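Tutorial sheet, problem 5. The two components below are modelled jointly, 868 residues in total.
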Amino acid sequence: MEYAIEMLNITKDFPGIRANDNITLQLKKGEIHALLGENGAGKSTLMSILFGLYQPDQGEIKINGKAVKISDPNDANRYAIGMVHQHFKLVHNFTVLENIILGVEETSKGLLKKDKARNKLLELSKQYHLNVDPDALISDITVGMQQRVEILKMLYRENEVLIFDEPTAVLTPQEIEELMHIMKNLIKEGKSIIFITHKLNEIKAVADRCTVLRKGKYIDTVNVKDVTTEQMSEMMVGRKVNFVVEKGEQHLKDVILNVEGLTVKPKHAHKELVHDVSFNVKGGEIVCIAGIDGNGQSELVYALSGMMPIHQGKITLNNKEVTHMGIRERSLAGMAHIPEDRHKHGLILDYTLAQNLILKNYFDQKHQHLGFIKFDVMNDDAKRLIEKFDIRSGQQEKSIVRGMSGGNQQKAIIAREIDSNSDLLIAVQPTRGLDVGAIEYIHKQLVEQRNAGKAVLLVSLELDEVMNVSDRILVMYEGEIVADLDPAVTTEQELGLYMAGSKRGAGYEK
Amino acid sequence: MKNKEALNSFISSIFAICLGLLFGLIIIFIANPNQAVRAFSILLQGGFYRGIKSLGLVLYNSTPIMMTGLSVAFAFKCGLFNIGTPGQFIVGAFTAVFISLKCTFIPNSMLWIVAVLGAGIAGAIWAVIPGILKAFKNVNVVISCIMMNYIGMLAVIELVKSTIYNAAGAESYSVPLEKALPRLGLDKLFNGASVNIGFFIAVGLCILAYIILNKTTFGFELKACGYNPDASRYAGMSEKKCIILSMAISGFFAGVGGALTYLAGTGKTLAIVETLAPEGFNGIPVALLGFSNPLGVVASSLFISYINVGGNYMQSCNIAVEIIDIIIASIIYFSSFALVIKQIMNKRRSRKLVGGKE
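Model answer (structure tokens):
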């Protein structure tokens, strides 16, 4: 059996932590090999070693059976290893072609020669069915398209081994499907792929084999065909993971959030981003807004939370109209909000964990006296929440949030919002980019809120999440709600039809 | 963590200063190789060269740049680059001088307080205009501040000409000693240097700014807006309020700086020249060297003033005033690299952490 890459018995120590402990990864030629592990399991370290960013303390790397030493990324390039990073490395005001030739551009007398490059690009694009316009500006094309540019960049450099670092985190369901298709095409053309992810159904869909890491240790390499997703997740997390969210019986209470005829049309938008939306959320239920990204869910939430002005409509919270209230007034009136973008909105990354935990209540009587912040109260509060929500960080409440892992940053936001004890909790994609363990935890928190009689409005793009967590599903399509569904009697396929706009539910006909 | 961070800032500032001094030494060697060593030692002795009087001069000279430095640093904390300090400074200075000379109905013992407050308010108004433009119309603060600088300078020239003009010297009248800032006997203590209460007001305001920024809910909001305006908005803070108030406070400090400079009773007058007040721009290196920390501003303004005083004494070594200015400027310039040095230090440290076992 010939291997494209073998990383044998790799061990790497950092002060105080063994990031990789005797890890072996063997990539066969022409296979998609998934690398599975929770955040912090050592996947990135392993790939950094393959890229020459770190040197292993023990172990060796073989390429095509020959032992090699990779001392920097240029070496990796020489061995035809390329990587699509999770956050694309593209110049936004350059065209696709310019981005692809960047660094390997051909010149004649100091002038760029693009014709040959363009032909090669068009050829590659045809060969692998990657439809990109070489002259489009990166800033004008979709995220999925940008990813294809990254893939083309590797192909243009004639890389044989392609590493995809959590490529689906930023994609819509359709784009994910397309990516899977592209990956299969690449394999057909003889490339080999390492696919880093923690989404099990994606592994199931495309990967041939899967290597599982946990806390820096090598767990196993399995044939994906032979295992179930449950088994894989157990290997990854080290215990049984509950995919089915245990919700308990539902005790519906009064309406907490009521929205009537809400329309959002920003000044510069061509059309209404949210059109005449009406719904309510009662205490004791989780209502999920499902839909493909960009169908007005974000704007709906911005309008509800007061971050975007509304055009028309009425929002009431606990029978009190909040339509014209500011963000803080709404939050004081009982609206908690776990935002979609935790770095942009949810946290002040340069503040400490304790400071972030009081971000929404630093001004109340408990936390300040005559305008002076009570730092001892702030720290005690933080300690309590860190304990209760198991937020892990280097220096507890004094940690700068920027240095914390994504999962723990998200836990910090959830701790802050749940601790505010609001009647309504709006959670927008609360599990995005998190691993199975953290997702399970967050779902449990949402359900606890529901069982405590609070209203939960969940916005999610993940079908699994929509089906498992919610008590009621509202589907949004092009700014409108097109269906009100009961997850118990709805299949994912059906849901997909509503999301794609090819079906409208009872009472929502045009 | 915080202490380590502070220590890092301190070490990198010191390191930057040493680099600057070394560079200064090179220029001195080029300017006058024969007396270079002597000149350099005079520069280093700076505030101690003529004993206690020089030290007094250091305190006196540090006051204006401490205030403008504080002004720049405070706005920095809210993510705003207040480059309008020259305008705010000179508008404050004019207001102070005007009140001193014209408001004769106020008793002399109270007059300086009114003048300083008036100057602060004038500076605040001058700064709040760019603040309002930024908050409501998203106009770049740097551009509107620069325009306000010129408007301020030219308006002051016109106002001086029409109100407190001393035709004999083509300048404003100076503030007489009895209306100036109280000296509290400091001039005697410092052997004739014009130290007055202004220095202590400046230090006091720096401490006040430190407390506002680090201990109050208002400071919490200001810094939050500076770090991440989107998240601050999400948390229900008013970004507009933060921008406007931090510019107003920043301008207040610069305006007070103008008052403390022109009310010192040293015969300083508002000249009819079309140049922006250098004290204003000098606040920028002071703020940078002090890492935008109000307490750091106290230290960095003292240092810059110390070098200035020493530099002036270098004239005794036959070094032209212009060359001395270049030397001082390059020392300050290099000192502003403190931030770069700190970054290099942090990078080295993290590399050490990562590569610890290699």
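Marking note: Chain A touches chain B at residues 13-15, 54-55, 57, 305, 307, 326-329, 331, 337, 339, 344-351, 355, 359-360, 362-363, 367-368, 371-373, 395, 398-400 (CB under 8 Å). Full credit if you identified this.
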